[in-house]
Amino acid sequence: MAVQTPNGFNLDRSGRRIVIDPLTRIEGHLRVEANLDSDNVIRNAVSSGTMWRGIEVILRGRDPRDAWAFTERICGVCTGTHALTSVRAVENALGIAIPENANSIRNIMQLCLLVHDHLVHFYHLHALDWVDVVSALKADPKSTSALAQSISPWPLSSPGYFKDLQIRLTKFFESGQHGPFKNGYWGHPAYKLPPEANLMAVAHYLEALDFQKEIVKIQAIYGGKNPHPNWLVGGVPCAINIDGTGAVGAINMERLNIVSSIIDRSIEFVEHVYLPDIVAICSFYKDWLHGGGLSSKNVMSYGDIPENANDCSAKSFKLPRGVILGGNLNEILPIDHGDPEQIQEFVAHSWYKYPSDCCGLHPWDGITEPRFELGPKLKGSKTDIKELDEGGKYSWIKAPRWRGHAVEVGPLARYIIGYAQGKAGFKEPAERLLKGLNLPLTALFSTLGRTAARALECQWAAHQMRYFQDKLVMHIKAGNTATADVSRWKPESWHKEAKGYGFSEAPRGALGHWIKIKGAKIDNYQCVVPTTWNGSPRDAKGNIGAFEASLIGTPMVDPHRPLEILRTIHSFDPCLACSTHVMSPDGQEMASVNVR
Amino acid sequence: MSGATETFYSVIRRQGMTRRSFHKFCSLTAASLGLGPLAASSIANALETKPRLPVIWLHGLECTCCSESFIRSAHPLIKDALLSMISLDYDDTIMAAAGHQAEAILEETRAKYKGRYVLAVEGNPPLNEGGMFCIDGGKPFVEKLRSMAEESMAIIAWGTCASWGCVQAAKPNPTGAAPIDKVITNKPIIKVPGCPPIAEVMSGLVTFITTFGKLPELDRQGRPSMFYSERIHDKCYRRSHFDAGQFVEEWDDEYARKGYCLYKMGCKGPTTYNASSALRWNGGVSFPIQSGHGGFGCSEDGFWDKGSFYDRLTTIKQFGIEENADQIGMAAAGVVGLTVAAHAAITAVKRMTHKPDRAPHKSKPS
């Protein structure tokens, strides 16, 4: 009783159902259910976002200049990217142009996030899907050292170094208290690395934990703290004063030196640890090319990291911009965020109410209210869900579509579009990686491809930080020290009514904010977020989203220990706090039903 | 970095505490709990042989900035905290296990470490829509919170979400998000507000508990006095400009470039109790004011609903350290006389510890 979705996937929910909830090592709360056939191959997949916070309801009636701080709190993992998108939306609505230095500093902060987030995602949220920690206890430290030294000049690679780590790990496991490694899927047949590669990877898991806290010091210099640095409508809050009176209280030589030094160390860590690890892991898993899902069909990227301040042309953006449909790499379609026919959100299978469930709404006109109701085939009860009914409403995530199409967003989407465009910094590194692994281009459309694209992008972003830091210094040398335009800071200078949008490429993909301002207050605010695209439930026509599509056809070795599902879902780097949002029609408090 | 048998005792020995000091520490702990010399040897025995402090870290409605901040800690390194100081047996964000295997850990912990684990909560439970604005394992998150709180020794309320409600509880609080102490009223709760809290404040609190075997002194609002008893303004390096009447008048003006006071740009430092001007952020690199933006009071109750972040404070009557956090907190229903033995010590002295003497909150979830 298989049905084919309009976007080309065969779904069959007749087989045995498995449930993973909570799906851990992500940001927020996510539930995944899947039906397996008699060979334990996934034939139907259901992804359900299980939290909602209502940030946009809260934004209504507030000062648009404050919106960045509220939306920044949508996510503390991709911290700052919502804030950047928000100040862009407000500036777009109010017609504010920011100075070049503010553009460079914003780019450095956004790139810093890309580097940090990708590194932490791989080592601390994703690596344990490929790396068996317990197997590392059996490794030979000498062979581990030989392996590490054969792939990288990274100095922490002596036999003694790995031996010490192994002793520490052994005692840790012998203590019987396994902390975050407790109940992992150790010994699962889907783990393919030899003990030595596992030991090396565990060493780098711990080193990356030490190093990640250094990377974000860049955001602390320019934004005062991380997580949740400070931003400003009109520019950036940090003033520049290199050698005048009071320079010690501003961005000065010492501050620039800290940033510069961390950029160098970040490039080194990514190139000597992260990338060699990715290549090593890919070489052991290159037979496991499942999880492509939508990536070989529809991908989208808004573009980001503008070379020039206030220039939103595809040419100015260093990250690719455009949409690919139907796997046609020969045509990159243009995006217009203001066109009501392009980006729309649907709620047929989401816990929200629209005037009509079959019609989508553009974010400027987003009218939505929560409606928590479950389909008739639900197993369990309203507050004790055993199995969801995907025929009804089943997620707090809405279903955004581009011209009606479900698309994948994120690093892999960016690399596919960059590859198709022949864009500098995208095509060549992807080709080199594939060639080194002796894999065809089609191998990119996979879980492994998603994970590898993220690593390539991390390296790209680290080098781009260097580029914009140098550009900033060059501008200061030329006597240009402006960091903010305050000509429209005061609400008296605004039009009575205004609307605008801002967008960015967050670590997890395309992010957009839409704002309407009335009488100097926020009248409507909507965010359409990367995990809303990737983690979306079905739409009214039955198209499945990227998470669900990526699981179809994947064989599972041991359904009781769903390692393969974790591996593929984690490859998207889900962020659920980001993905679930809504605006109530009148901003009023929802009906209150207290729990006991 | 070779390991040892990782009991609490071996960890503090490795960190330089002598055996003599260790026994002195045990005696002092026993004395501070009002117990006799026999209890001291029981505590010592427990600390030498019992396991690392089990910590269960739950996530409600939140943004994970608290977890991100925690892993920024420079001292101790989080690597060392995880491998040698605590046993972080459950934390959705980093744990290897998922689904049934993850849920099983909660049941096991409740039974095996009854009354001996710390429950750390990031975020808060929504109470509207039957609690289903935050679903965990198919059920309302608040059920999981209640269940894990029941057998815990004490609760750490990480960040402004768990402490006060934070952004999702800002008006009109559509999900009915409630701070932890509105839902759990019979356990000691340590509030560590901030959006997020500073990394070393978080790791400092955890290591205080494992090192000294007790909960730290709390103010009347339930915050550790060591980090929350002074205002940002009191220790701000731009304070002299405030006192001299030298203010930034506009973003990026010549006074901004000279590092003048940000009071007129809306800085809430004068009314915010937090350690950011003293400890600073990210290993001491900076803090909001140092990087040119006023503080907006992210560690204060209800800070989202006190007007724009750029509105100038008009409620300051006078300046100086004339009022402390306790006096201000008197107005709120608070925590008094809270002392419990933490970690392994509790197994030895459990029946003899003080029950926390707390006034239950009367106010309804907003």
Task: Write a compact overview of the structure shown.
Chain A has 596 residues and is an alpha+beta fold. Chain A has helices at 55-59, 67-72, 81-94, 100-126, 141-151, 159-174, 195-215, 217-223, 253-285, 411-421, 427-437, 447-477, 530-534, 546-551, 563-570, 576-579; strands at residues 3-4, 10-11, 16-20, 30-36, 42-49, 299-301, 304-306, 317-319, 322-324, 343-346, 352-353, 369-370, 379-381, 384-387, 399-402, 497-506, 509-518, 521-528. Chain A contains 16 helices and 18 strands.
What attributes does this structure have?
heterodimer, A: 596 residues, alpha+beta, Cytochrome-c3 Hydrogenase, chain B, 2 domains, globular, disordered C terminus, B: alpha/beta, Rossmann fold, Cytochrome-c3 Hydrogenase, Chain A, domain 2, 16 helices, 9 strands, 33% helix, 10% strand, disordered N terminus
List strands and helices in order, with pairings.
The complex is a heterodimer of chains A (596) and B (366).
Chain A: E1 3-4, E2 10-11, E3 16-20, E4 30-36, E5 42-49, H1 55-59, H2 67-72, H3 81-94, H4 100-126, H5 141-151, H6 159-174, H7 195-215, H8 217-223, H9 253-285, E6 299-301, E7 304-306, E8 317-319, E9 322-324, E10 343-346, E11 352-353, E12 369-370, E13 379-381, E14 384-387, E15 399-402, H10 411-421, H11 427-437, H12 447-477, E16 497-506, E17 509-518, E18 521-528, H13 530-534, H14 546-551, H15 563-570, H16 576-579
Antiparallel strand pairs in A: 1-2, 3-4, 4-5, 6-9, 7-8, 10-15, 11-12, 13-14, 16-17, 17-18
Chain B: H1 8-14, H2 19-32, H3 37-49, E1 53-59, H4 65-70, H5 78-85, E2 86-91, H6 99-112, E3 118-122, E4 135-136, E5 139-140, H7 141-150, E6 154-158, H8 159-163, H9 180-183, E7 189-192, H10 199-212, H11 225-228, H12 239-243, H13 254-257, H14 276-279, H15 325-329, E8 335-336, H16 345-349, E9 357-358
Parallel strand pairs in B: 1-2, 1-3, 3-6, 6-7
Antiparallel strand pairs in B: 4-5, 8-9
